[in-house]
Amino acid sequence: MFSLKVNGKKYNIDASTETPLMWVLRDQLGFTGVKYGCGIGECGSCTVLIDGEAARSCTIDAGSVQGSDILTIEGMPEDHPLKQAWIAEQVPQCGYCQPGMILQATDFLTRDPSASEEEMAEAMDDVICRCGTHPRVMKAMKKAAKQMKAKGGAA
Ligand code: FES
Ligand code: FES
Question: What 3-state class would DSSP assign to 35?
Answer without folding.
Answer: coil
